[in-house]
Write a structure and sequence with these properties.
CATH superfamily: Oxidoreductase, molybdopterin-binding domain
Strand order of the largest sheet: 2-1-10-5-6
Radius of gyration: 20 Å
Structural class: alpha+beta
CATH architecture: Alpha-Beta Complex
Helix content: 10-25%
CATH topology: Sulfite Oxidase, Chain A, domain 2
Number of strands: 10
Length: 173
């Protein structure tokens, strides 16, 4: 059976509409120009490399900086200022389809962060410690941190083990 020309045009239009709708659901993000500090993979809509988003420091600093002072067991129990990007903003930027993820560190340590309300808990991925960029030997260059002093209910093993230092990858579940 031979299609009439208008049937073929309708089919081509429907195919193009489907392709455009798929492209609209995902976005190609800017690519890093410096060393990659963080890679986000998994259940995300937006990418800048196949299946992932890679961030350098300049890209992370494009987000509004969030800072807080808190006491941690890793900083000699002294008040320490952490500065970085809010986790909820980063998840929104990559189009994360879940708020649950695995955070992995340089030394292969990992922690699954699940059932955490990042919209109401201002957790950050810190890149500065006391206003200085963190180096690997300072537990950086990136460190997931929670404002323990501001939210005493976070002072639990669950949140402390979620403070992944030397963070290099997040895999969205």
């Amino acid at each position: 059976m031979r299609l009439k020309p208008w049937n073929a045009i309708v089919q081509v239009a429907l195919i193009l509409l489907y392709v455009c709708a798929q492209a609209a659901n995902s976005a190609e993000l800017p690519k890093p120009t410096g060393p990659v500090l963080l890679k986000i993979t998994g259940n995300i809509e937006n990418t800048n490399t196949p299946g992932a988003v890679e961030f350098d420091l300049e890209m992370l600093e494009q987000f509004e900086a969030s800072s807080f002072v808190t006491v941690t067991p890793w900083t000699d129990d002294t008040p320490t200022t952490f500065t970085g990007v809010r986790i909820n903003e980063l998840l929104e930027y990559v189009g994360a389809k879940s708020r649950d993820f695995r955070a992995s560190a340089i030394d292969k340590y990992w922690n699954d962060l699940t059932d955490m309300d990042f919209d109401n808990i201002p957790a950050i991925i810190a890149y500065k410690l006391n206003n200085e960029y963190m180096r690997v030997r300072d537990l950086g260059p990136l460190w997931i941190m929670f404002p323990f002093d501001e939210f005493p209910e976070l002072d639990t093993e669950k949140y402390k083990t979620a403070c992944v230092w030397q963070l290099i990858e997040i895999e969205i579940h």
